[in-house]
Request: fold
Amino acid sequence: MTESTRLAAAAAMLGFAWVLPPMSDLQAAELNVLAGGSTTGWLTELAPQFEQASRYKLVIHFDSTPNLIKRALSGAPLDVAVVPVDVFKNAGATARFVPGPTTDIARVGYGVIVRAGAPKPDISTPNALKRTLLGAESIAFLPESAAGTYVLRVFERLGIAEAVKAKTRAQAAPARIAEAVAKGEAELGVFLVNVLMAPGVELAGTLPPELQQDLVFTAAASADSKEAEAAKNFISFLRSPPAAAVITAKGMNPG
Reply:
C-alpha cells in the first residue's frame, strides 16, 4: 500500500476525507490551533488521528478565555480555533476569523466535586447548593476563564458572592481544580463537569436545573491562515462520528 493510499484509508476510517496531496508534497506542515483549556483531554487524544490522516502537524495552544483573546489579538500564527463562545464576544478577536457563523463542536455543564470517599453534599436545589457552599471550608475553581466567570455569576445569583470570597481557592489551570480537591487543599471544586472527572475526586452532582448552563466550544478558521483548506478539514473532522465518540467519552456533549 502506498503512503497516499494509506492516508486516504485512514481518512475514510475516521469519517472525513479530503484530496490528499501528491507524494512530493507530503512534507508535514503545521496547523496552528487555539483551544480552550477544558478541551485538552479530547483534543490531545484526537490530534494524532487527524495528523495520521492528513499531512499536517497540529500545534495546539491551550489556554483560558482571557488569554485566548490576548493571543488572538497578538497576531501570533493562527489557522483555526476551538474555543469558548465567549472569545467571539470580543470584537477584536472575532475580526481575526473568517466572517460568518462558527461551528459548535462540544458543550458541557457545571458540577461540584469532593475528595474521593468524602460525604457528598446536597446540591440538588439552589437553596441546598447555597447551604453547601456556605458550609464549605474552601472552594476551588478557575476564576480567569469563561467557566469561572459563570461560576462567579452563580455565586451572585445565590447571594453569596461576598460570603464565599474568602474561602475560594483560585487555580491556575482547569486540571488543578480536581488536583486541589484530591490533595485536600480545597473541600469542594466547582467547574465544568468534564474537567472534574479525575482521579482522587468524586462528583457530588451537577448544578440544579435553575442554575445550570452549558458552556459551548465553537470552531472557526482564521481569516489570514495560509492553510485555509486544512483548517476547514480539521473542523469537519471534529464534527465526525469518531471525534464525537471521543468527546463524549471525555465528558462533553458533541455539537
Notes: The chain has two domains: 3-107+215-254, 110-206.
